[in-house]
Structures are given as C-alpha cells and as structure tokens.
Amino acid sequence: MIKLEEISKSESARYMGVRGEINSQTAGLIEKYEPIVRASLRPSYVYREAEILRNNNEIQILGINMTGESIKNHLKGCQRAVIFAATVSAVADMLIRKTAVTDAAGALAVDCLCSAAVEQVCDKVEDEIFRNINAVYRTWRFSPGYGDLPIQIQGDILSVLNAQRRIGLTVTESCMLLPSKSVTAIIGISDIPVSPEKTSCDFCPARENCGIRAIGGCQR
Q1: What domains can you pick out in the chain, each with its CATH number?
Q2: 7-34: per-residue pLDDT in tens?
C-alpha cells in the first residue's frame, strides 16, 4: 500500500506558480490543506511487465503500438518494459470541488497539493515495482502525450492493465484520465546502460502554453 508521509510543500508551491521563496499567504494555504489532502487520498496502482516487440521501425508492448520517434528513442537498447497506471483516487477531484465552494484560493492549493502528491506516488510506485523486478538498468517514466507519443493510447493502456476494474481508472473521449490526478507511464528495462536523459520541456506538446514551464519546467 502506497502511503505519503508528507506532500512536498515546495513542489506544491511550484505548481501554484511560486518562484523562489514561498510567501506567507501561499505557505499558510499549503500548511492548512496539506494534512487534509494527505489524509484524504487513497493511492493505488497496477502494472505489467512485458517484452518489447520490434518490427522494422515499429514498437509494440502488450499489443499496443507505440508510435512516434520519442518513444523509440526512449526505449532504445531496452528489451522489456513496465507499463503502469497510478491514481490518488477520485477523492482528490471531490476535495478540490468541495473546497472551491467556500475557498477559491484554498481550492487552488488543494489542486496543486494533489498534483504534487501524484508525482510522489509515482516515485513510490516505481520503487515498489522495481523491488520485485530484476532490472539492471531502467529509463525514466514516459507518459502518453510526451513528445510525439499519442495520448490516444491511454485507453489501450488502461485496457491491458484492467485499470477500470482494479483501481477505478477510466479515460474520457478526449483522452483525459479520470480521476484527473492519475498517471500512466512506460519504463524501459535494459541489460546495458540507457540514456540518463530526464523529462524535458522539449518533449512536451503543451510546452508553448505550459504554466509549469513558465516557472522552471518539470523537475523529475
């Protein structure tokens, strides 16, 4: 069972658009809502490990066609991969909506705390998965929508993981995950060293209009 001891206040503030030192008002909101959010969330995840199949210039994992150059570069040198889905539960969305009724600024803090929380959950999920899998080397996690990997494969990923039944995770017609504070990702496994390259704004199709990029970009 995934449990967070504390949600990162600095990451939550960064999602709120804070650069540098956190002001007292923002710090107060985060301090007020962090224990409420942490106590409410119900993190869960599912995953599968599979062989990476290559046919000419195409990559397939668990029957899912992984198209685009970004994922090919990401999995270069990898023979296997883990695909996982993680969520902090629908409670997050309900808590954001409930808080917005009486405290708009508080709702923003709750939203950003939940965003920081799901990234921490993914870190813990990755640690748990690879305590059970022999992986000499592995890549960082790569999600649909990064680079030119189509976000449309979200539904295929949830299907092969049976994520709706197992953790209540679904996808909308516009390929957004529900609950919203959820992540799907692919991690390559290799017997040889793989590229240490991390998440970059250069990969992201939303980079031109991204509020996170404006405050320094992803820090994973």
Answers
A1: 9-195 (3.40.109.40)
A2: 999 999 999 999 888 999 999 999 999 9
